[in-house]
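Schema walk-through. Below, the input block comes first and the output block second. Nothing else is stored per chain. Lengths vary across the set, and this one has 344 residues.
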Amino acid sequence: MTTPKLNPKMLTVARESRGLTQIELAEKLSLSPSNISRMEQDFIEITPANFTAIVGTLNYPEEFFYQEGETLPPALALRKRNIVAQKIMLPVEAQVNIYRLNVEKLLKAISYPEIDLPVLDIEKLGSPAEAARKLRKLWKIEKGAINNLTQVLEDNGLFLINFDFNTDRVDGMSILADSKFPVVFSNKRSLGDRQRFTLAYELGHLVMHLKTNPPFTRDISHEANEFAAEFLMPEKDIKGDFKDGVTLNILGDLKRKWKLSMQALLYRANDIGVITDNQKRYLINQFNSINIRRREPAELDIARENPMKLRDMITNYKHKQKLNVKQLALFFNSNEDEFLSKYS
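--- output ---
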């Protein structure tokens, strides 16, 4: 029987998940930053005393640092607002990787079958909008607004996770668990309308770009936006909703129906030729004049959708294995409080 070995990559992901730089962790441990760097690169051994201090400072159980694996980048472009500083992104990506490791361990334990996510090559289909139409048909989605997008995605094999990114500048991202199970993350800080568009945006990346190797000359972020717009607001279904024109009041009413932001509906009206660019600019100016461009009226807020699939799978595993919460948390290499905050 081989003796478990500390995985230095887990020291890095633990540190980054707590939002600490090597310098900051070194100060907390009364070590030099170069020592932290050498530990993370596996150039020097972590002494028992230093390991005890690391466990206490980073607040992960000892088992966390012995698990196999490494950190991976998001599968594709993430949905964000402008440029996001590395100081903000590193903790988010570290948490995403910890969730990924949890999902991989659970799916391996229950022998979960591989899913068959459609591959939609827009160079063959012609456009992201056509890819969206094809996917709605493949998944047998009824015409009109999708009432619960989260349920649709979970029913078709995706794993969805909501957590607080500790920033408003990033809306969502995707990663593959065990190189084959798509996991989509959305920021708990986003309102329901933005969450839904983010999920559709990430879905577009997964089905159009993950396995088709698009050239760098293509704007895959724009393609994902175009896919999301058609997937959530099919042109043939929504066009009739603009028969009386496009005003702020009409956009507010349609927000309740389509569960998307007034601005997303405004841009959609422009995309499908219902209003001109000048009309769109005029309406955007109206948004600005009554100060609802950044924050639409609270009475029109769309509730966030709550993923259920992963939580239910964890609950079933707990019952089947006859585990208590502490044992289940340890299975996920987590302390009890953090496990409950993630999955309860």
